[in-house]
Amino acid sequence: MDIQIFIDLQDRLDQETKLFEQIKDAVKELYKTCRLASANLSKAHSVPQSQTKEVVESAKAQFAEMKQKISELSKLIEPVTFYRYHDMWSNAFQTACSLAIFSIYLSESRLATPKDIEQVLGQKVNVDDSQITEFVITVEEYLHGVISLFGELSRLAVNSVIVNDIKRPQDISTFASELYSGFQLLNLKNDALRRRFDSIKYDIKKIEEVQYDLRVRGLLG
Prior knowledge:
Elements: H1 4-41, H2 52-58, H3 60-74, H4 82-108, H5 114-121, E1 125-126, E2 137-138, H6 139-162, H7 167-183, H8 191-216
Parallel strand pairs: 1-2
Helix pairs in contact: 1-3, 1-4, 2-4, 4-5, 4-6, 6-7, 6-8, 7-8
């Protein structure tokens, strides 16, 4: 028996273990940067709209670092092994997308496009559902980020009233309703996306309740 077969197999297993640990460490660093960005962006919930651009500015360093961390991760992955290891970083990418989407809403009051995400995070969003031949952010990860925006909007509607920014909940309500209408056009085949989409109605309801309370109190025209 030629035991070299087993020696070669062990070398291959060692290489895979090393790659696994490298990916794990890269994702851990990305999560760390995402937490710092989230901490900075969360300040938007305690200031009026006039100060939110300053909040976004405070997170710019973290977004630059996210871009770098994702680039470093991409260099570890060959296109043919993309889906083999994809689950290891997918949740981190969803988080990064949600932060980028929230920051663009805060600064420009609009929905971030896939092109915006590419610019902020430095990787293509695979919106055309083509076969993956490069390291990309999947369309599902982008959509998870969009769904997360609803949760931030519902919090922002409540917290805006606390800081006496009465007009903002109305703007949030209009934007969230339009965004929800757009989402309803999608035929979601991903189970996780479908479940999260079903939860959006609770965020919409919370935003509407803020609007109702303001009207009852005579604070809206």
